[in-house]
Design brief:
With about 350 residues, the chain is α/β, with parallel strands linked by helices. The protein contains 11 helices and 13 strands. A 9-stranded mixed sheet has the order 5-4-1-8-9-10-11-12-13, with helices on both faces. A 4-stranded mixed sheet has the order 3-2-6-7. Helix 1 crosses helix 8, helix 3 crosses helix 4 and helix 8 packs antiparallel against helix 10. The protein starts with a strand and ends in a 14-residue tail after the last helix.
Amino acid sequence: MSSYLAVIGECLVDVVQSETSAPKAHVGGSPFNVAVGLARLEHDVVFAGRRGDDDYGRMIARSLRAQGITSLLEADDLPTSVATATLDPTGQASYEFSLDWQLPSAEELKQKFDELIDSSSSSSGSAEPDAEPECALRHLHTGSLGAVIQPGAETVKDVLDYARETATISYDPNYRPTVVPNREEARQQVEQFIARADVIQASTEDLELLYPERSHVETMKAWLQLGPALITVTRGASGAMALAHSGFAEQEAFSIDVADTVGAGDSFMAATLSSLSRRNLLGADRRAALQQISHAEVAEVLRTAAQAAAITSSRFGAQPPTAAELAEALAGSSGPATDTTTAASS
């Protein structure tokens, strides 16, 4: 592990049910799915999320090990969180949650991250005592329920502030009105996280629920002014769009037979981060370069992310593609994102 991408947020068990099939339990949670997506795209991943010392918690632990993901936290005495996902006839999912989101203190989490860096640096055998550790926290992703449910959400916010010294930050609000019904309160929380982040992903549903009074692009422009370098928005069957300081881009959805949409947005997020990583645009020392990402790079990142989401939507459950699957699909698809060059300031 030379440098790692980390994810902090909820992990839970999704119990997926529909009118045509018996309930099935899968490990999930948006941040967990992003961690799995990054691991399948061949990144070293650390996951900081709580789980209980129960059957569901042990299912999560097995999944982390199977994906080669390093778990920052041990199981605790609270029940493992559960989300019940009900699929409609088109495969779209609606959710109900039973959640516990309590974390160690921010100081304890910072210490755990520091210990991980120190231990990995020591095992690398670096001969230069003053050299930068070979293992560094290069990027930290968060979002969804872990960024809104208290008391854990405030801890996550503090950890982001700590991580910004070495890492870029990404955030997916994944807004659930059933969890935070007060829209104004949700907006304030979302915007506090956006101001700390470099890369934002949201869905058109998020934007419509949070800001029904303005257009999707107006919200993207407003968010960009809060400090991020890149805003991406998924639009389901209509594809995706992105806004950076270099301009606006759109990507049509890839043609697939949809099995369900569980985890598609998380695969989009993982592929976005993977694509940025492979362009050497992650890490605090690359923050200025990320702010200057070109329109052509934005278009290619968007295309890669949309393809990953399409692959996930073509199979049941949150099953993101491997690096080989994504590369093969991209090689077989045609054309980059739509070349729309609307300036961010227009």
